[in-house]
Amino acid sequence: MVGGMVGRLLVSALVLSAASPLRANSISFATGPQLLSGWAENASAEFEINNTTHSITVCLLNLEFDPANVNQAIGSLRFTLTGAGTPTPDAAPIGISDTRLDISNNGTPSNVSPETTTVWQTAASAQLTGWQVQLCTVCAGGGSDGLIIGGPNALSGGKYASADATLKGGSTAQWIIGSGLVYSGNANANKLGGKDTSPTFTIQFQPTVSLTNVTITNVIFGFGEDPNYGWNFIEAPVETPEPDTIVLYSAGIGFMIVAMVLRRSHRR
Q1: What is the signed CA dihedral for 15, 16, 18, 20, rounded to 10 degrees?
Q2: 61-85 pLDDT, tens per residue?
Q3: For a Cys-Cys bond, which of 42, 44, 79, 89 suits 30, CB 3.0-4.6 Å?
Q4: pTM here?
């Protein structure tokens, strides 16, 4: 009886282990809610690594809803890439999918329009360990177009009720919405219904760059419009747990159970 149970446990543990590769293709980093010099910030980035196309697709979200100031908008993302040799990316990201908008003087989203091109740019520079890859609209020289903001205030009828003059009054679809939420039209015509609210940028590398064993660390979210990637930044050096990690953890628990059962069977 014990032998049969051990066999079943061992098979289960091996299946769990085999179900997951040691390195996930999807890696997520998040700041969590934070105060940065008095401004509330909350950002996340998910990296999809594809060695077949030699590319990394980044989904960049701003989870701080009803922002008050441009200092809460994401203007840059930097990260360290190791294990890829000299990963010089193409200057312009591809595979763009996002939604532009302005905020009117009464806080209502206006000039809402999807886009498949972007002012965001990429570059890479050598670091002590690996290479730092930059994805930014606020790059070394600063910038004020295409920063990513969070969603409006649902309790205020879909308006940006807290927005100040640094966010309101535009007429050129200045911002990109990055709430990651699904909206439907309401009485205030928020115009976000059915729009893409999860901005994605694909960083394309040369065919000689292998991304099979790359490691992404030191992810830095930059906020605001100032030069050198924004007025301030938050570094998220540790990735958030991924489903693959959870499966590996479960496999480890499975092997521990098998070991415990084997010890008990030997004692008898």
Answers
A1: 150
A2: 999 999 999 999 999 999 999 999 9
A3: 44
A4: 0.81
